[in-house]
Design brief:
Reverse transcriptase; two-stranded antiparallel ribbon; 3 domains; mainly alpha
């Protein structure tokens, strides 16, 4: 920061230590001038609350709290709103918050995602002015809203599409590689991704232990070939949403 003539705001500076597996507990502090910065359990960056275990529990709790406050305001206005206007408000103020940086939640267990799904269910009930414990699958189907888990899947696959087609950020492209067989095979035109090598474990471990490179590769290769080989992002998004919609809401 000194080299770029920037001044560090110590009042907004946080230290988040992410220990590795079986890492001993360390008493870490950073001295900056006359100030001491001590480790914190959570830190907020670009609207995402990170915790020192990367469980995203604090981020999910903060998101649900914010959405509940929004619900309170929508509920007060609901008698004066049409169903369409309520849907627009719910999508702009609630669903958009559920979608923000949701690819970071890929691989989390269903129990961790459930608070976000309850928020979406409540939003669907509010649109149709129904009790909050109503059966929501028909409501989501009518609104064409993918469930939260599917929305996470969708966003992760969009990032994978950018990486596979060379249009994404370099740090995303470096995480996934197109599969190129050693000799001419039919699979060469299937646009699959190459599974990253893992030491001391299965080819694809359980989802909750997966990073983006592993999970995105697994999900991408499971997509139908007509989705993976879509000519444009617009076509890819349309086919992917239809696929996930059938998978999660038409069973």
């Amino acid at each position: 920061m000194s080299a770029h003539h920037l001044k560090l705001n110590l009042d907004k500076t946080e230290l988040l230590f992410l220990p590795g597996k079986d890492c001993p507990t360390l008493d870490l502090t950073i001295n900056i001038g006359t100030s001491i910065v001590s480790p914190t359990q959570t830190a907020r960056n670009l609207g995402v609350t990170l915790d020192n275990k990367l469980s995203f529990t604090a981020h999910i709790a903060a998101t649900t709290h914010c959405c509940r406050y929004t619900f309170y305001n929508i509920r007060r206005m609901r008698p004066q709103l049409t169903q369409k206007a309520t849907q627009v408000l719910a999508q702009a103020l609630v669903i958009s918050r559920l979608d923000y940086c949701n690819s970071l939640l890929a691989g989390l267990p269903a129990c961790a995602i459930r608070p976000l799904q309850l928020i979406q269910n409540a939003a669907a009930c509010r649109v149709f002015n129904l009790p909050k414990f109503s059966h929501t699958t028909p409501l989501l189907r009518s609104l064409h809203w993918l469930p939260v888990t599917a929305r996470i899947h969708f966003k992760t696959m969009v990032l994978a599409y950018h990486a596979a087609n060379g249009s994404g950020p370099s740090y995303i492209q470096d995480m996934v590689k197109l599969y190129i067989p050693a000799r001419a095979l039919r699979s060469a035109s299937a646009k699959q991704l190459s599974a990253p090598a893992l030491r001391g474990g299965p080819k694809f471990p359980s989802s909750k232990t997966c990073g983006f490179s592993i999970l995105a590769t697994k999900w991408w290769n499971e997509l139908p070939i007509e989705i993976r080989t879509a000519e444009s992002l617009h076509i890819f998004r349309g086919r992917l949403k239809t696929h996930l919609f059938r998978l999660h809401l038409e069973r």
